[in-house]
Amino acid sequence: MAMIKRQLPSFLRFPKNPNLSQRFMLIGLAITLLFLLLAFFAPVFQAWGWLQNPKDFLSNPIHDPPSAQYWFGTSRLGHDVFSRTLFGAQAALQVVILATALSMVIGVPLGMVSGYLGGKLDKVLLFLMDSIYTLPGLLLSVTLAFVVGRGILNAAIAISIAYIPQYYRVVRNHTVSVKTEVFIEAAQAMGASTWIVLSRYLFFNVIQSVPVLFTLNAADAILVLGGLGFLGLGLPEEVPEWGHDLKQALEALPTGIWWTTLFPGLAMTLMVVGLSLLGEGLNEFVNPRLRRQNSIRK
């Protein structure tokens, strides 16, 4: 009896000769994994901690430039910029992953239920989500941050609200198109409950774009978190955060302390670029039309 060789779905099989967009996706994946590793091992790489001990102010000058002892230099307050940058990545990843996960957990089920059931519930949810979607994300997050206050969980909640409509709209539109398929009608004819249809037959057919949204929203959430920190609304001041560090650095920039601005800003930019490249690459894998266009170009 011949052996049957199991293969992964076509969108999960990476080609042997990747095109330009797929190479960019690999670069984005490498950058994202690098920040994940740096954030996870931040305590190991920590040099002087977030703030030098008081005795160090007597023997070491404040705002040292980058050197073998202080790789990214120190701030005018005695902060080791390298340590602050690493722990800033840790804080950013915690908030961003939590915020995007919250918006996904809320938006995906709402989109499935709204698209499948329709009726008045669908109209009410559409109106509510469209109303939220029309508001600028940063402005909405700033307003909510005033209400909920500082902290990792509070910042994640303030950021996540703006992304719920995106998951809702994408999943709802897919659900509306998939619920008329023959296999859905067959399940309904056999007496399958709404929960069974949603969880067993619809879910895996309407979430293809969710990983793409997750990565792109994560990239945007880093900028939103940085904006909140710059305005003093993100995390507590004692927690290293890139936006807050950039605010402090800009105040010292006229005195020639350029390194406290460069490294946190560069770290934020690299993480956003990495997640954006990863999201655009994933979009090609889950979008058959894009894969077909790239195959034609080859």
Automatic annotation (TrEMBL):
It comes from Tolypothrix tenuis PCC 7101. Its main location: membrane. The keyword Ribonucleoprotein does not apply. GO terms for cellular component: plasma membrane. Belongs to the binding-protein-dependent transport system permease family. The chain crosses the membrane at residues 91-117, 183-203, 210-236, 256-282. This is Binding-protein-dependent transport systems inner membrane component. The lineage of its organism: Bacteria, Bacillati, Cyanobacteriota, Cyanophyceae, Nostocales. Residues 89-279 form the ABC transmembrane type-1 domain. It is a multi-pass membrane protein. Gene3D superfamilies: MetI-like. GO terms for biological process: transmembrane transport. Keywords: Cell membrane, Membrane, Transmembrane, Transmembrane helix, Transport. It is found in: Cell membrane.
